[in-house]
Give the backbone structure.
Amino acid sequence: MEITTGPLGQGLASAVGFAYSQRRQRGLFDADAAEGTSPFDHTVWVIASDGDLQEGVTSEASSLAGHQELGNLVVIYDENHISIEDDTDIAFTEDVLKRYEAYGWHVQRVDWTRTGEYKEDVQELHAALLAAKAETGKPSIVSLRTIIGYPAPKKQNTGKIHGSALGSEEVAALKKVLGFDPERSFQVDDDVLAHARAAVDRGAAARSEWQEAFETWQSGNPEAAALLERVEARKLPAELESALPVFEAGKDVSTRAASGKVLNAIGPVMPELWGGSADLAESNNTTIEGSPSFIPASRSTDAWKGNPYGRVLHFGIREHAAASIVNGISLHGRTRAFSGTFLIFSDYQRPAIRLGALMGVPSLYVWTHDSIGLGEDGPTHQPVEQLASLRAIPGLDVVRPGDANEVAAAWKVMLENHENPAGIVLTRQNIPTYARGTGDADGDTFGSTAGVAKGGYVLAEASANGKTAEARVILIGTGSEVQLAVHAREALQAEGIPTRVVSMPCVEWFNKQDAAYREAVLPAAVKARVSVEAGLSLGWREFVGDAGRSVSLEHYGASADYKRLFQEFGITAEAVAAAAKESLAGLPA
Ligand SMILES: Cc1ncc(C[n+]2csc(CCOP(=O)(O)OP(=O)(O)O)c2C)c(N)n1
Ligand SMILES: [Mg+2]
């Protein structure tokens, strides 16, 4: 596997996800095999540094790893006591191993400085690693006290050596210490080469041994082998389409509730899908009901029964680690994992989300309580800038469905895609469910949810006197604000202004469409436009143009009933209609 770990802490935290994934896969494919006998058994090895161990995200993830008793995880902590500002004593003096012991880890110390004379005792380390691997009831950490840059005479054991080149003088001096000719470069003795190359044969032997075990498993487990083949090919189950729920028109449903229904409907046909929440399962509607939790059986509670191969994830209140772990699971492959929290706390996940997007990892996020529409929890919980800031992450799909059936369509697109992460952004409050049909002029039906995959589509066509008419105004809405655009259209059309409504659940998907499609949805000739979204207008100018207007929220929210908040902050159908007229009036005659 390849993982990008530049921001310190992400590597270790995502490795906890690898370890989660290994255990879940074993449960899916080879649950009954005795310990250590399955081709799905493997150990996850991590090499981490002082900086990794200082970062908060590793505390979150390591706490979870201990709780989960991840015996398949071994961390080698290169405790060289040096980071960029030199001796770590200036900022890091805790007893790391005591902390890990408290997390429930198996801890060992290997100190190569112990005798006062530095000695890289590889055998001692090897013995510790074997002991760590043998401990299958807990994750293991081996604190390995080293000297950074040893034995460079001047630069070893300094902060300088981390980031700067040794320089020719220091290189020459280092070669002398090591018994090399300082004049020669790339000097490798034959016996060193031979020893290193023997690794190829060892690897080949290990591989063919594994292959044999794998083929035995394959022929003995045809059903699991078929599942493995499907997920390796990144194919969705044939039954997915028919499993997706269809929501009855005319009934108000929150999109978070719709999302929960979708997950529960597809859960039975898609065993590779798993996930859970950072302590907000009931609010995020992330629980696939009737499935066991992914926890050691001994950790079952009154509310949640689990086993090590379970499906429902509980991250505790650790949003950052949740995102890193989901990245790890997604990188490890074969399964699809999601983590849930309130949209506002995506801020706590951002470093991992960004890294997942940079790597092109198909991590899934469920973000509910997506605007001031969450109501009384107030401004600390009400996202304002989050949609814009998440859309600013290249490679992240931010999906904000406008009704329950858009939710179902959106999940399908998200699951079909394996190239990059996506977050689904959902309401707490109920919103209308539209009757789907042609979306033609009669106004009885709205455009088909097939348009969701294109990111933006005509939800309601402009009309005059019951006939399709050329739109004079386009209203673009997302999520819970689509309904405001729909109401504003009625008002505008009653005044003789043919008005088209575009639902734009995913800007990123829309921008991927060809120019002809984008022109068909947003004809360049129609310059009077209004966007409506209960968040910053930042980003919407791209779609409304210079003559357009945005009905938005440019400040923090407040605590009150959501209907009152939308009213007070002027995010209403009346405001949308007024903005449309303003936009029209501003056009050259
Ligand atoms: C989140 C984050 N903050 C800061 C940095 C910049 N940075 C790179 S390495 C480093 C510290 C290096 O010390 P250590 O982690 O002990 O690694 P060592 O040089 O000992 O291998 C820092 C602060 C980073 N890469 N990631
Ligand atoms: Mg260090």
